[in-house]
């Protein structure tokens, strides 16, 4: 028993109340390049790989600008393997008097540009990114799910398995949480509180929710979680707190980081009309 308390208490602790103070209430959204449709525009997809030499990026953008090409959504990434960068974007060439091939030739002639690819493929007028794969997040192979789709999966699980669905979802969360801690510890050397903070911060970057460690005492932690993907499809529609996957996820990360058994209760939930989801993590004694 004493050992358990020490494990929880020994964590390096900084004043928690400062954690969220610098955060802005509202963040701007982040869009992954996927599909675009504009009846007025003549959309083309472009993918330009270049050396990370000063000035190359500017020359590429300047060349497009000179051809009267309008940039739509896009991305710019830097390779982890070599000293290259990649721009992928949808562009509108309706105001440009030159052909796509000529734009490609001009871009290829820029010193430092290694590869230029174009796609004009459309699906019923919809332009879909067909030049990039796999989807990487922080260099890791990922895929996306619509929040509504996840909601429907959860709904059908409850229809088929009744309350058993809650157990399945909770356990899925525990495994995901444990896996996350292992992956963080494999990559970074940091203290336990920083591991927790990093994992929570990453939930925002990965679009899960905006989670904040509001309280961290010797035997209890409270998390304020805004716009949680799991509860969002059921906003105001349920009589009780709804999260099982994320509740399990928190249990998985806290248990693995603290090396002790914890219980996680969702005390407030947007699914039952509360403004945020609030989780309380306590050491199981
Ligand atoms: Zn909730």
Concise description?
With 285 residues, the chain is of the alpha+beta class.
Outline the secondary-structure elements:
Layout (H helix, E strand, L loop, with lengths): L1 H8 L25 E2 L6 E9 L4 H11 L3 E9 L5 E9 L7 H9 L4 E7 L7 E2 L7 E2 L2 E2 L5 H15 L2 H24 L4 H14 L4 E7 L3 E7 L18 H14 L3 E7 L8 E7 L2
Antiparallel strand pairs: 1-6, 2-4, 2-5, 3-4, 7-8, 9-10, 10-12, 11-12
Helix pairs in contact: 4-5, 5-7, 6-7
The chain binds zinc ion (ZN).
Zinc ion binds next to loops.
Write a structural description:
The chain is of the alpha+beta class and 285 residues long. The chain has two domains: 2-26 and 146-283, Trafficking protein particle complex subunit 3 (Muramoyl-pentapeptide Carboxypeptidase, domain 2, 2-Layer Sandwich); 35-134, ACT domain (Alpha-Beta Plaits), CATH 3.30.70. It has seven helices and twelve strands. The strands form four sheets. Strands 3-4-2-5 form a four-stranded antiparallel sheet, with helices on one face. Strand 7 (136-137) and strand 8 (140-141) form a beta hairpin. Helix 4 packs across helix 5 (164-187) and helix 6 (192-205) packs antiparallel against helix 7. It is elongated. It starts with a helix and ends with a strand. Bound molecules: zinc ion. Residues 228, 231, 241-243, 266, 269-271, 277 line the site of zinc ion.
């Amino acid at each position: 028993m004493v050992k358990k308390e020490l494990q929880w208490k020994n964590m390096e602790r900084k004043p928690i109340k400062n954690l969220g103070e610098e955060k802005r209430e509202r963040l701007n959204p982040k869009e992954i390049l996927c599909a675009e449709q504009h009846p007025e525009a003549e959309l083309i997809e472009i993918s330009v790989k270049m050396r990370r030499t000063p000035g190359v990026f500017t020359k590429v953008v300047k060349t497009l600008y000179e051809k009267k090409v309008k940039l739509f959504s896009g991305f710019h990434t830097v390779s982890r393997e070599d000293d290259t960068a990649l721009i992928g974007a949808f562009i509108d060439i309706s105001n440009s008097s030159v052909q796509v091939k000529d734009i490609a030739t001009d871009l290829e002639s820029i010193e430092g540009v290694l590869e230029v690819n174009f796609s004009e493929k459309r699906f019923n007028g919809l332009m879909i990114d067909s030049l990039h794969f796999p989807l990487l997040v922080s260099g890791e192979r990922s895929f996306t799910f619509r929040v509504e789709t996840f909601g429907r999966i959860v709904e059908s699980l409850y229809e088929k398995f009744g309350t058993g669905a809650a157990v399945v979802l909770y356990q899925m969360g525990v495994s995901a949480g444990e896996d996350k801690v292992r992956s963080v510890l494999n990559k970074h050397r940091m203290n336990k509180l920083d591991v927790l903070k990093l994992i929570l911060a990453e939930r925002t970057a990965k679009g899960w929710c905006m989670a904040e460690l509001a309280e961290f005492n010797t035997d209890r932690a409270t998390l304020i979680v805004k716009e949680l993907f799991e509860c969002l499809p059921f906003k105001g529609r349920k009589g009780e707190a709804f999260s099982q996957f994320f509740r399990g996820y928190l249990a998985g990360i806290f248990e693995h980081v603290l090396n002790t058994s914890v219980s996680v209760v969702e005390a407030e939930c947007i699914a039952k009309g509360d403004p945020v989801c609030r989780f309380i993590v306590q050491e199981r004694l």
